[in-house]
C-alpha cells in the first residue's frame, strides 16, 4: 500500500511539473477553431473514429451558449483539445444526449445538471511522447464540475477506455457498449461520475486536478462574471495544493 501511494505521489509530482509549462485557451474565434479542427482531424484519422471525408470537424454546437471549447498548449504548442457542455434540464444540448438521449434525459428529468466532455483529441505525435496528455486535458472537466457544481460528469468513450475512467474517476457504467453509434464508426459506452462524492478523494489522490476559484472563473465565466475571454489561463494546481505560486519551472520529464 505504501509503495502504491509512493508511486501515486511521484506521478502527481511529474504532472505538476508538466502543468508548469501548460496554458489553457478558451477558443471562441474562427481562426483558433481552425487550429482545433486540424488537431481533431489528426487524432480522429489516427483512431479511425469518424468518416473524415467531407467533414468540417467543426459543428454548430461548438458555438452553443453552453459549450466551451479549449486548446491545451504545452510550451506554446497546441497539443490537445476538448469541448465541454454544461447541460441542464432547461438547456439539453450535448453530444452524449444525441447518442444516448433516453439515459441523458433521465438524468435531466430528475433535475440533475451535467458536464459532458467530448471531442477530446490529442496530437498523435505528441501523445506518443507524452502519454499524460489525457490527464492534463481532463483536468478541465474536473474544474467545470466544480465551477458549475453539477451532479454528474459524463464519459462517452470507447469500451477499451472504460477501465481508465473507472480507475481514475470512479465512473459508473450507464450504457453498456453499443456498436457504431451515431456518426461515429466505433463502439461507445456511456459512463458517469458522481461528482459530489468522487471529487474530494480524487483531489487527495491526484492533486494536479485541483484548481483555484479564480482559474475556474477565467475558464468558464461569461457575461457579467467575465465580460471578456482571457487570452490564456495558467493552471493553479500547485497553488491550490501547496498554497503558494508557481516555482521557477524545472525541466519537465515526459510521463511514461
Outline the fold blueprint.
Elements: H1 2-19, E1 22-26, H2 30-47, E2 67-74, E3 77-87, H3 95-99, H4 101-109, E4 114-122, H5 124-129, H6 133-148, E5 152-157, H7 162-169, E6 172-178, E7 188-194, H8 195-205, H9 213-220, H10 237-242
Parallel strand pairs: 4-5
Antiparallel strand pairs: 1-2, 2-3, 3-4, 5-7, 6-7
Helix pairs in contact: 6-9
What would your notes on this structure say?
With 256 residues, the chain is an alpha+beta fold. The chain has a single domain, classed as Gcn5-related N-acetyltransferase (GNAT) (Aminopeptidase, 3-Layer(aba) Sandwich). Helix content is 41%, strand content 21%. A 7-stranded mixed β-sheet has the order 1-2-3-4-5-7-6, with helices on both faces. Helix 6 (133-148) packs across helix 9. The radius of gyration is 18 Å and the shape is globular. Mean pLDDT is 88; it is low at 246-256.
